[in-house]
């Protein structure tokens, strides 16, 4: 099959496979898959590899369905914001009705198939995650309160809990802590992005913190949440998913993350504008590495545990 039959054909304006796949927010889906897989592999016990594969697949489909429904509802905002104008709906490649139909169909498919493949506790958590992201965050919080990303961040924090539930059929302190790690990481990660993408949300009328309360308040919030995040992240080293590898990784990452947050907090807006928000962009980039390496360390502890190397 040629590339022109798979991807968008610029000369015809017709949607291709790439446009429909873009509805699923593949970058976000990759984070969902990774954290869910870590939750599954770190959980005590185990499941058949085929069950594990199918479960992660259906969790990914559920995450993608949420993305499609988010794009359907936020099409008006996406048309205004520069970083989202090329998405399938604003660009005219996919209609809103198509996006909604795909999102609803994939949501039902993912939840039912996860229940059949694993258990209904995991399926219930997936269903609640989709509902929370689409209804609570996208339809309600996002356009109503500057704390939207704080509360709404819970939606992106559920995947490791779902992966854990696939194996155990329940919830534990370890899965809740993995949830909390992502939950507390989301605000400083996203607010750092907002600092150097400042005009997009204002133009779209989205009440992000930096729009409603200014950059100084946003910088203060980034520092406070980073301090709280560091306490939780390092504390996880002494739980069932932690160990020496995780502890060393977390100490180094949180030292760097705290230093970055303090640097942002000290910054004057005039200086930041002058250097093109260099430190804010560096902090945002570090935040991506921060989450990946924390969950990578949890995975390493779980992988080495059978050989007596992981955990305490």
From TrEMBL:
Keywords assigned: Cell membrane, Heme biosynthesis, Membrane, Transferase, Transmembrane, Transmembrane helix
Alphabetical list of CDD domains matching this protein: PT_UbiA_Cox10
Record bears the keyword Transmembrane helix: yes
Cross-referenced Pfam families: UbiA
Topological category with respect to the lipid bilayer: Multi-pass membrane protein
Gene3D superfamilies: UbiA prenyltransferase
UniProt catalytic activity: heme b + (2E,6E)-farnesyl diphosphate + H2O = Fe(II)-heme o + diphosphate
Pathway: Porphyrin-containing compound metabolism; heme O biosynthesis; heme O from protoheme: step 1/1
Protein name: Protoheme IX farnesyltransferase
Entry similarity comment: Belongs to the UbiA prenyltransferase family. Protoheme IX farnesyltransferase subfamily.
EC number assigned by the record: 2.5.1.141
More details: Carbon 2 of the heme B porphyrin ring is defined according to the Fischer nomenclature.
UniProt function note: Converts heme B (protoheme IX) to heme O by substitution of the vinyl group on carbon 2 of heme B porphyrin ring with a hydroxyethyl farnesyl side group.
